Each structure stands twice: as structure tokens, then as C-alpha cells.
Amino acid sequence: MPEPPSASAHQSPSEIREKFFTDGDPLTNVRATSIRADAIVADSFDRIFSEFNRDHVALIAVGGYGREQLFPYSDVDLLLLVEHTSFIVKYEIQISQLLTALWDSGLRVSHSVRSLSDCVHVAPDNTQLNISLLDVRFLAGCHDLYEGLRYRQLPNFYLREQHTLLKSLMKLAHQRHLLAGQTIYHLEPNVKEHPGGLRDFQLACWVSQLNNMSAVHFPESEEFLPSDVSVQLAEAKRFLFAVRCHLHYFKGRDDNRLDFESQDQIVSKVFSESSFPFPETVEWMRDYFRNARVICRLAMQMVEEETTQSQSLFTFFRDRKARFSNKDFVVRRGRLYLRNSQALTVNPELVLPLFAFVSRHGIPLAVETERRVVKNLGVFASYASEGHGFWVVVSEILSQPFVYEALTAMHEIGVLTALFPEFENVDCLVVRDFYHRFTVDEHTFITIQTLRDLPSREGELTQRYASLAAELDRPEVLFFALLFHDVGKGAPNGDHSERGLVLADTAMERIQIDQEDRETVRFLIRHHLTMSETMTSRDLSAPETIEQIAELVETTERLKALTLMTFADISAVNPEAMTDWRKQLLWQLYIATHRSLSRDIEEHRINIDTSEALFERITGEESKNLRSFLEGFPRRYLRTHSVDQVIGQFHLSQTLGVKSAAISLTRKHSHYEVVVVAHDRPFLFASLCATFSGFGLNIEKVEAFANADGLILDTFIVSDPHRSLELNPGETIRIKKALRETAEGIADMDKFTSRKISAQDKWHIGVKPLVSYDNETSPSATIFNVCAADRTGLLFDLAAKFSQHGCSIEVVLIDTQGHRAFDVFYLVGPNGDKLSSDMCTYISTELTAVISLES
After folding, report:
1. Which residue in 228, 247, 233 sits closest to 200, CA to CA?
2. H/E element holding 606?
């Protein structure tokens, strides 16, 4: 077995790293890393194959390594090329020794062994193999064999299979973009795989190489990229190369996810010794997204031009979309062109009708049209700033079926900020809260896309909102409000809704929106968080909660718009934010408020009628037991429960003669309803919370009641994120048994309450704990609002603290946003009254200590 190669070849990894952190040049870094690998690979090959005839084997660098772009922890992509398949067996031992030696030297090797004929056949399930050969570089062995592949075999292969390979490339790129949600604007992007990442840069290179391949010229990687964007592209490439180098060095592996921690590390490292002012990380991330946007647009333009060129003349004449052409615009091969290429210079106002056309028909701009628009942006911006009656055409854009496509296209090429400079405040803006997944501008566009796509979405709950959207008189007004609802986040200080109002007012004045529509937009922006906050922090069965919303919205039309705005805003936070539970809460709030606005008196008569209906169905001796069961329950129990629910819970309580606690567990759509009936004891509620936590169930809402006999009736709404109850039928029996034992006081609570702070919990320590109380909103209870880092056992700790002070919990509302938990408790004191201010202050201090992980 040959000795492993020397690691002294050229610069050492530590020297290359030190130079990068000194001069910050990523291009020099990846080339130096490649040169070092070259020396190790060539030396290893020469020693291992020294006693063999090497006329039939060549060692070739491919892919990124072939381009001399080897990142610190990237794979070293190698092709062992043999003249014929028979030589694979002949060199089998030497190839194995070579790979072992390279791994022993510290190189991460990714290799393939192929004959000449293997390299010039399409690999149906491995397009990347064929594409990697666009970037080949000789390392060792038979140079004639390499040249035969590089200059004779491969050009003919690529010319023959150009269409097939391009089609496969398009498909792979489309799949990759779909996995990333077809957006570059992730708050923690993957700098290699996400749209706008280095894979897109390479996609543009590959397309240009394949399109410019000839029998006499094999294009270099970046040789035929468009010259008109060469400066921006060079800057973007350098920026992303530097980011990936930093990520590899900081993480010590090929991890290309630019997470929040890495963002802070890079900014700190890059600017720690700089004479320039230290930028905020969010500002540096804006630079990242703008550079990614340059790369993504280039890649998509290259793809579009390839797609357009590949269509036949016959397809062009048959293109049905050509019938949409008009006096200003013409459709060719599924793309939109200006009929007069100089039209925008003479008539800058034509820019908006152009995008109204996109919004109406869903036909994207041709690359040439985009370039014409960009060239005339200054003229259009100047014209738009003068204040013209643009609302007519803007409302047309907002009311058409392809509004999302139109707005995002306007944003990507700068038209949106030329029309609305106010929107520049949120361009590529990052707001870190571990809950939002996208930049503010992308979140805004997704809200509009969410409402636009409602009719095609599945699910009974979602279709309720689709029906509501169909009832809107002026959807374009709602969409304009959505466009501006978060622009205030880009301005310093104060409430972002109020700041956004000022910016929206300026924009509405400039484009001359009708006064009535302005008032609606102002209302929606000012109150766009109200329903979301209400449904997760207030008891929706309390009449005062509904009346407050009804007084706020005043009309059913505003209620519909605000409900849809809330639905869209939550849905656009991240794909998991709008759970079925939240959909149900929002719909409950909408229906209750709509009834109030419609003066539906049935909502107010339920307190009287429910008890009468109960005793019509429960008669005789059993009615005495029912009266005993109901005695002492607050009025809200009958108000918030149907007759069937009350009777079911009454019958559950009657089983207590056999056992001291009774449990029911019922699936309700996407969640489970668990009812616990037991005799009250100290810390019972807290113990039940701990039991749910021990089974991995998330508590969404709790209602707690106690009657005159000391019987508690607690209703828990829980979700099962791991689907344990669904996938394991026996789990239902286990949890009911555990809850019963907990209620009876015989459960081993240590297994539910003892815990260590996990690494993930420690990451949440930065969430500032907040505790507040409210003695005004509810007529009968004190409301405690708690914001804390979400962690295992949090609800148990909070409930236990309330129990220590003899408080009875009537309602608990739980909401989780990223790493933060928002818990709301409706409490009464030992005598059933509100808590005093002094007691509230004291409990607040104790709760703050409880929710601090450091304590």
C-alpha cells in the first residue's frame, strides 16, 4: 500500500484561511484551495500509478473543482477516465488505493470511474453527471486521453444532446425553486441551493455554455454570460462566494445555510477591523438579497431565452395567447413585447398599462421588454412623482387574476419603488422574530397571493374564506391596504401601523385615490393586527370582546375586509402559521361579530334558553342531579356550551361514583377536545398541563369551571404535532389513564415535570420576558398576559404560580409564534372576585422570575 501524500503541497489550509480573513478575497481563496488539492491529488496519483502504464487512464477535475472554485469544505469532484470499460477492472486496486489515500489526506472526495463512451451518453437519472463535464480540467495521467474527451468527444455530445440536457436543466431548476417556495427572500437562506444562490449562477453559466458550444470551440464557464450585466454580476458572484467561504470556515463543514447566528458572525468578522461604520446585520442582509436578486434574474432570463428559442416557428403561429395583443403590446411565444420599442421613452405612463396587461392575462414580460422598462425607470419615476391620477390603472392591476405576478414583476425590476418610493423602506428588509420566514416585502406579496389563490385552495375551513372574498365589493382596496400594511416597519421608531399610515397617505394623495377608499385603507392598515391579537388573547365567548370588535369595524363590509386581511397576514408569516385551529378562531370571531352587527338577538338570549332546553330533555330524578351539577358554575358556562355539550359533560360527571376522575377525548377536525371532570385540589390544573406536555401534546386553549360541590370541569383543546394519537391507537388509552391518575393525585409527576434545559431552549434565552395584567377589559376576571421564550413545562410553571396564590383559572389562551409563547389567563381570586392591584403587581414580579430561563 503506498504511503499517503504529503500535506505540505502549496499553502496549508490554515494559511489559506488566514489570508481570506485578512484580505476577504473569496476568488483567491477558492483557487488556492483548488491548487492545494491539485498538488495532493496529482502527487497521490503519480505515486500509486508509478509502476503502471498510464496511457489508458486520466484523472480529471470536474464540476466546481474543475472550475478551480473549491470552497473550504466542498467535495473534491473527480472523474477517473479510462479508455475502455475493461480498464476499470485492471486498475481496480490502484483506484481503491488512490481514494483511500486522498481521504486520509483530509480531502472529501466525490468520484466516478467512467470510460470514454460512458461520458458521451445521456444519463437519464443523473443529468448532473453530464453537466459536470462542462467544467473539466486535467490533473494527472494520460493527457491525450483527456484531450480526446475535452476537444473531440464532448463537443459532439453536447451539440447532439443540447436540447435534452437543457430541458433536464430547466426541470431540475424548477424543482429546486419549488422546494424553496420559488422565492429568494428567506430570512435564513441557503446560499447554494435557494433561488438566487450559487446554483442559479452556475445554471446561467451552463445554459450559456450549451448554447454557444461548437465543434471547434468549447466555451469556458463564464465566457458567454451577458455583457450588459457583467459589473453587477461580478459583484454578486464575489459577494456570495465570500458568504459561502465564511459559512464553511465558521461551521467547519459544507453547510450553506445562512442562519441568524452565521449572519451575525459574518458581519462581526468582516467589519470588526474596518474603518467603515459597523452595519446592522439586517442592512447587510439587504445586500445579500439584492445580490441574490441579480443572480436569480440572470438565471431566469437565460432560461426564458432558451425556452423561447427552443419553440418552433409553427408553435409561434399557433400560440393562442397572441390574440391578446393590442395597439400597444404584442404577445410572441408566450412573452409580452412593446409594439413600439421606443414607446416608454415618449410615453412613460405606458409602464402601468403594461403591468395591467400582465395582471389581466398572466403573460410575463419578455427579457427585451424588461430591459426597455429598466432603461426608462428614471423617466417613469420622475413622471410618477409629479402626481397623476394613477389610481384607475393601479386599481385595475390590483383587481385582476394575476395581480401577484404583476406586483412581483414590478418589484423585481424597480417599477414598484419608482411608483411608490415609500415601498423602498421594506425592500429586502429582514425583521428577526423567529416567526416570520420571509423578508417584509416578500411577506407582503404572499399576503396578496394567499387571497388570490383562495378559490383553488382545498379544505372546508379555507373555502369559507374563499366565499367571503367573493363577497367583497372592492377587492382592489383591500389589496392596496395589504401592499402598504407593513411599510412602516422600514421607518425608525414608533408603532409600525401608525408609521405605515403616514406613508400610505402620501402615496394615496399622489395617485389620487377616492376619499372613501382612502378611509377604508387607513382603517385596514391601522387595525390590521386587531383581530389576530383578539382571537389569541381574548375570550371569544365573552360578549364584551365581540362588542369591542363590532364597535371598531362598524360595517359588515369592513368586517369582511379585516377578516380576510387577518387571514392573509397570518398565512404569509410562514407556511405553518395559519393552522386549522387559528382558522377556526378567526371564523368564530368573524361570525360572532357579524351577528352583533346584524343585531342577531339570539346570541343574547342563549343564557335564558339553554337552561330551559336542558330541563326539557333531562327530567325526573335525573334533573335533580343536573341542577346539582350546574349549581355554582358561572353563567358563561351555559353561554359557551350547547345543550348537547352540557348534557354530555353532565353524563360524564355521573361516572364519578365509580371513579374519582372522568376523562373524555374527542377528535375535532385538526385538534382534540379533552374534558376532565374531577374533585378540585391544589395544583390540579398545573399538573394536568404537565401531563399533556409529557405526551408531546400542545395546549391551544383551556376553559376551567368549578361548581358549588368543588367539582372541576376543565376543557382542553390540544393539537398533536407528532400525530401520536392518530398513528398509535393505544396512545389514547395511555393518555386518558395518565390524566385520570393525575386528577386523582396518584401519578408520578416527576416524569412530566423534571426536565433539563435543552440546547434549543438556551437559544431562546434572548426572548425578553413580559408580564402585564388587565383589570378593565373583563367585567368579572383579571387578565394576565405573558410573553416568554417557549419551552417545555412553561404552562405548568405559570399555572403552579397562580395556584400558590389561591387563584382560580377560568380561561387560558395559548399562542406560539416562533420561539415566543403568548399565554393569556383569565383569573379570579380565592373569593371569586378580581385580584387587587397590589396582588397583581406581586404576582407579575413572581411570574417574571418564573419565565426567565436564567433563573
Report:
1. 233
2. helix 602-617
CATH number of the domain enclosing 128: 3.30.460.10
The one-character DSSP state at 186 is B
Using an 8 Å Cβ cutoff, are 143 and 177 in contact? no
CATH number at residue 237: 1.20.120.330
Going across the sheet that includes 76-82, the strands are 109-115, 76-82, 57-61, 137-141
CA dihedral 564, 569, 573, 576 (to 10 degrees): -20
Taking CB atoms within 8 Å and a gap of at least 24, the contacts of 95-98 are 97/1, 97/2, 97/48, 98/44, 98/45, 98/48, 98/49
CB 39 within 8 A of CB 16: no
Rounded to whole angstroms, the Cα distance separating 673 from 647 reads 16
The strand pairing partners of 698, in sequence order, are 719
Strand partners, 782: 827
- Domain with 28 in it: 13-157
Report if residue 4 sits inside a domain. Answer: no
| Residue count of the chain | 855
Residue 492, SS3 per DSSP: coil
Using CA atoms, how far residue 498 sits from 417, 486, 487, 489, 524, in Å, is: 21, 10, 10, 10, 11
Chain centroid offset of residue 212 CA? 38
Place of cell 364584551: 544
**225 domain-assigned:** yes
CA nearest to 87, candidates 52, 62, 120, 138: 52
Q: Could you give the CA distance from residue 118 to residue 82 in angstroms, rounded to a whole number?
A: 10
Instruction: Split the chain (855 residues) into runs of 10 and give each run's mean pLDDT.
Output: 47 94 95 97 93 86 97 97 90 93 95 94 85 96 95 95 92 93 94 97 96 94 90 96 98 96 91 59 94 94 70 47 84 91 92 96 93 94 91 95 95 96 93 84 96 92 93 93 94 81 95 94 96 91 91 93 97 90 94 80 41 80 88 81 90 83 88 92 88 88 85 90 87 93 83 51 60 89 89 84 89 77 88 92 92 60
Residue 247 identity (one-letter amino acid): L
3-state secondary structure of 679: strand
Query: Are 294 and 331 part of one and the same domain?
Result: no
Q: Which three cell numbers stand for residue 359?
A: 395582471
Element housing 411 (H / E): helix 403-412
Residue with cell string 405559570: 798
The residue to which cell 385603507 is assigned: 521
With b for 16 or more beta-carbon neighbours within 10 A and e for fewer, the 783-802 pattern comes to bbebbbbbbbbbbbbbbbbb
Count other C-beta atoms under 10 Å from residue 382's C-beta: 11
Between helices 281-310 and 230-251, what is the axis angle to 10°? 120
- Give the integer Cα–Cα distance in Å for 476 and 691: 49
Domain end among 124, 157, 190? 157
The whole-number pLDDT of residue 311 equals 52
> How far is 397 from 402, CA to CA, in rounded Å?
8
Statement to judge: residues 845 and 733 lie in one domain = yes
Answer for the pair 829, 740: CB distance below 8 angstroms, yes or no. Answer: no
C-alpha cell at 524: 385596514
* 568/561 Cα distance (integer angstroms): 11
What is the phi/psi pair of residue 82, to 5°?
-120, 155
> 611 lies in a domain?
no
SS (H, E, C) 430-445: CCCCCCCCECHHHHHH
Of 215, 74, 212, 202, nearest to 152 (Cα)? 215
CB 421 within 8 A of CB 375: no
With respect to residue 623, please indicate whether it lies within any of the assigned structural domains: no
Same structural domain for residues 765 and 734? yes
User: Which cell numbers in the block locate residue 644?
Assistant: 348537547
The pTM (predicted TM-score) of the whole model is 0.79
Between β-strands 76-82 and 109-115, what pairing exists: parallel, antiparallel or unpaired?
parallel
DSSP category for residue 153: I
Asked whether residue 520 falls in the same domain as residue 543, the answer is yes
